[in-house]
Amino acid sequence: MRRGSVRVRPGEWVRRGQVIGECGNSGNSTEPHLHFQVQDHPNFYLAASLPVRFRDWCYEEDGEWRRVEEGYPLFGDRVRNCVDALSGPPVPDSASSQTATPSLQGEGKGGE
After folding, report:
1. What predicted TM-score, i.e. pTM, was given to this entire model?
2. What averages of pLDDT result for each successive group of 10 residues across the chain (112 residues)?
3. What's the CA gap between 86 and 63, in Å, rounded?
4. What's the Cα-to-Cα distance from 99 to each of 31, 42, 104, rounded to whole Å?
C-alpha cells in the first residue's frame, strides 16, 4: 500500500467498491500490486481463508479470453482485467495477467 493512503482501520467492515487505499510497489516488483487475504476470524492462527468473488474479469481458455460477470477464478486459471483482454491494446503477458494461486481453489467461474 502507498504510505499514508490507507483509508480503513483493522477490523472495519468494507463494502464492494469502497476505496481502502492506494496500491504501491514497496519491494522487488516492476509494478504496483497487492496481496490480500480474506478470513473468517481476526486471529490469523484461528482463521480460515475465505474465497473472494471478483466482478468483470476474464480468463483464458483455448487461446481465447472469456468474460466472467461475477465469480471465482479456479486454481491454474490465467486471469486478466477484461479491459486489457477484450478491448484494450495488446499488453505483454507478464504485465497484465496472473495465474490463480492455490488459495483460489474450489467452486469457480461465474454463477456458483
Report:
1. 0.54
2. 88 87 79 82 93 88 90 88 61 48 52 50
3. 13
4. 16, 28, 10
